[in-house]
């Protein structure tokens, strides 16, 4: 459960940063298309982690963790796109991208652990 507490805390903190980033994009850059995508997928990461922690089965838990991973990859994509297109400066996105990459590693590790457990139970 300790690993889950780490991912729960880190995803929650990441979501708070995504919300602030969304506000910044809307208020200062007047961008409201990609920012909505970032807000949607970014907040979904934490929401699905929370759902996973309350899952009724291992399969349900695994499904929610997988969704979190996909949403995290999408958030990473949109942030990179805003940076690479020159819409925001690298200094504005690097910390968010670092946090996103850290979450991806943690969630991926959880996925691999669960998958190994499933594979072991099949044999």
Comma- or semicolon-separated keywords:
mainly alpha; 123 residues; de novo design (two linked rop proteins); 87% helix
Question: What can you see in these coordinates?
Answer:
By secondary structure, the protein is mainly α. The protein has a single domain, classed as de novo design (two linked rop proteins), CATH 1.20.1440.60. It is 87% helix and 0% strand. It has 4 helices and no strands. The chain has helices at 2-28, 34-53, 58-84, 90-122. α1 (2-28) runs antiparallel to α2. The longest helix has 33 residues, at 90-122. It starts with a helix and ends with a helix. 27% of the residues are buried. The mean pLDDT is 94.
Lay out the secondary structure.
Layout: H1 2-28, H2 34-53, H3 58-84, H4 90-122
Helix pairs in contact: 1-2, 1-4, 2-3, 3-4
Contiguous low-pLDDT stretches (5 residues minimum) are none
Order of helices and strands: HHHH
CATH topology (level 3) name: de novo design (two linked rop proteins)
How far apart the termini lie comes to: 25 Å
Shape category:
elongated
Q: What structural category arises from helix and sheet content?
A: mainly alpha
Q: Can you identify the CATH class?
A: Mainly Alpha
Count of discrete alpha- or pi-helical segments spanning 4 or more residues: 4
Q: Brief overview, please?
A:
The protein is mainly α and 123 residues long. Helix content is 87%, strand content 0%. The mean pLDDT is 94.
